Amino acid sequence: MFARLHSDIQCILDRDPAARSAWEVLTCYPGLHAVVLHRWAHACWRAEFKWLGRFISNFSRWITGIEIHPGAKLGERVFFDHGMGIVIGETAEIGDGCTIYHGVTLGGTSLYKGAKRHPTLGNDVVVGAGAKVLGGFTVGDGAKVGSNAVVTKPVPAGATAVGNPARIIHEAADVQREAAASKMGFSAYGVTQNDDPLSQALRGLIDNASSQEHQIALIWQALEKMNENRGLSQGIQMPGDAAKRETFEADKLNDLLDK
Known about the structure:
Layout (H helix, E strand, L loop, with lengths): L1 H14 L6 H7 L1 H17 L3 H15 L2 E2 L4 E2 L4 E3 L5 E2 L4 E2 L4 E3 L3 E3 L12 E2 L4 E2 L4 E3 L3 E2 L4 E2 L4 E2 L8 E3 L4 E3 L4 H11 L12 H34 L11 H4 L4 H9 L1
Parallel strand pairs: 1-4, 2-5, 3-6, 4-7, 5-8, 6-9, 7-10, 8-11, 9-12, 10-13, 12-14
Antiparallel strand pairs: 14-15
Helix pairs in contact: 3-4, 6-8
């Protein structure tokens, strides 16, 4: 028991730069208190002392602001950072080394008793503040859920889910991943440095439109030159300066996406 408690304290010291000592973590971190109390509640639940498990769970919610159903399964070194407002349902499972920030819900979308209604988090998953993970699916090992994301489908291992509804961003190549990890260290709040896939698609459309504008400008120049060289009295009627003024401002649209 003490070895497990020591592991829980050490994982907080490793992941929270604000933690200054083991004593501070032991006495002042509600995330640790919620984990310890949940183990007692879960033990009662498995021993068929259902009411006592729920009572301990409710007491933990009252003093920590973290609501964990006594039937939920927690792995080793789970860290609830700040913790206030976290809700974890009965059939949820959380793997080893997971980090969950405040306001997170691991909820269900089914009302059938006995069914797997809540998500399963693999090992080393990070769930950002305010995220909602809803349903009986799996979030793979090493995945990240961005802050305020709403996830309703499985997330592959190593991927990042962002947005509402969540979109999946797969990890970059191994070399890029290692380079980013060496620069950033632990990725707090499930934030990714990769661009959002919707923004990437819009940027691709903008670049394509800008390229087409350049090609059209070259065609106009060629037609003007052809008209002048042939000296036709009734040649191609050029639209004057209007076509030159109607330009596609790709830079402005890219600036809007950055904002």
